[in-house]
């Protein structure tokens, strides 16, 4: 091992397995010497994987970046700076349109302006913030959380009593159903509606919220569009939006594109625009009336 580079290591963040942690003032950080082994390779299920940094050898043990390890085995790794805690959780699919949870569908409700209103929450749990879409149904005196949002937290939601939304077919669960499932109590704060799930780029969100203006620019009968949910459904800047259009539940599928304008001063002005979009009216006056028969 004398041919390997020798490093003095003080601390590593959540992106790597650390040798010590804490505040140096209290003596919790320990300076150690480790060897960087660029000649080491890592194979997972017979396939070589690339690491963000070479393995380290300390006291005859190998250390690799924890984030890389999580990516190899489909594990979610988070670091909470405030509590100096590393969280390692089962990875859950982030596809809001797919859900395979098994449970008993005991009721149905509707995303209907006549029955309640959409709400957004931010759950701080296991070192990460999770947006959760919900609906307050005052006709049932119930609050529903969207199941696909809760699943991203690694909760086992199988066996719960589920509620199916009438128009989208998505599964939800009542708030009281999940109260006893937390491994640690989350911090829950209100999030603004429209709620964006899977997208944090404010420029893209602002562009998506301009869908109503884009539609009305064609000079047709004006549409009053109230977007309340934005779901990112692919890395190709494709989204699903739920809105009340003239009071009725509507789904919009949209894809954004980016234009770049080179200005005389040498700067570049970028602007997101709608490459394409489609409209599906989920709730019509006829099926809305049937809901109350």
Describe the structure.
There is one protein chain. The chain is mainly β. Helix content is 11%, strand content 44%. A seven-stranded mixed β-sheet has the order 9-13-14-12-11-10-15. A five-stranded mixed β-sheet has the order 16-17-18-19-20. Strands 1-2-5-6 form a four-stranded antiparallel β-sheet, with no helix packed on it. Strand 19 and strand 20 form a beta hairpin. The protein is globular, with a radius of gyration of 24 Å. The model is unreliable at 8-25, 93-100 and 289-293 (pLDDT under 50).
Strand arrangement in the largest pleated sheet: 9-13-14-12-11-10-15
Q: What profile does the largest beta sheet have?
A: 7 strands, mixed
**Poorly predicted regions:** 8-25, 93-100, 289-293
Strands, count: 20
**Which band does the percent of strand residues land in?**
35-45%
Indicate the overall shape. globular
| Helix-strand string | EEEEEEHEEEEEEHEEEEHHEEEEH
User: Helical residue percent?
Assistant: 10-25%
Query: What is the CA-CA span between the terminal residues?
Result: 79 Å
Structural class: mainly beta
**Separate helix tally:** 5
**From the alpha-carbon coordinates, what is the Rg to the nearest angstrom?**
24 Å
What's the average pLDDT? 81
Write a compact overview of the structure shown.
The protein is mainly beta. The protein has helices at 66-72, 147-151, 202-209, 211-216, 285-290, and strands at residues 5-9, 32-36, 42-44, 47-49, 56-58, 61-63, 75-80, 85-90, 104-109, 116-125, 128-137, 142-146, 161-165, 171-174, 187-191, 195-197, 225-234, 238-245, 248-262, 268-281. The radius of gyration is 24 Å and the shape is globular.
């Amino acid at each position: 091992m004398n041919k390997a580079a020798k490093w003095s290591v003080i601390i590593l963040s959540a992106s790597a397995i650390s040798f010590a942690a804490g505040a140096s003032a209290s003596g919790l950080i320990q300076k150690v010497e480790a060897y960087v082994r660029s000649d080491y390779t890592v194979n997972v299920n017979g396939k070589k994987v690339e690491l963000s940094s070479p393995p380290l050898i300390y006291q005859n043990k190998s250390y690799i970046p924890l984030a890389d390890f999580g990516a190899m085995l489909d594990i979610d790794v988070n670091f909470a700076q405030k509590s100096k805690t590393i969280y390692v959780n089962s990875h859950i699919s982030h596809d809001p349109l797919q859900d395979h949870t098994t449970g008993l569908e005991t009721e149905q409700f509707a995303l209907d302006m006549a029955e309640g209103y959409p709400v957004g929450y931010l759950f701080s749990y296991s070192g990460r913030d999770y947006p959760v879409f919900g609906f307050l149904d005052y006709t049932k005196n119930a609050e529903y959380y969207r199941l696909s949002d809760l699943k991203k937290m690694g909760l086992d939601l199988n066996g719960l009593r589920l509620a199916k939304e009438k128009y989208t077919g998505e599964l939800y669960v009542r708030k009281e159903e999940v109260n006893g499932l937390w491994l640690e109590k989350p911090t829950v704060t209100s999030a603004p509606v429209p709620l964006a799930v899977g997208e944090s780029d404010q420029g893209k969100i602002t562009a998506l919220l301009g869908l109503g203006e884009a539609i009305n620019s064609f000079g047709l009968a004006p549409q009053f569009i109230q977007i309340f949910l934005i779901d990112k459904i692919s890395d190709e800047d494709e989204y699903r939006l739920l809105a009340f259009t003239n009071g009725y539940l509507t789904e919009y599928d949209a894809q954004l594109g980016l234009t770049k304008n080179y200005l005389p001063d040498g700067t570049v002005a970028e602007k997101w625009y709608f490459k394409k979009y489609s409209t599906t009216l989920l709730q019509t006056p006829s099926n809305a009336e049937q809901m109350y028969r």
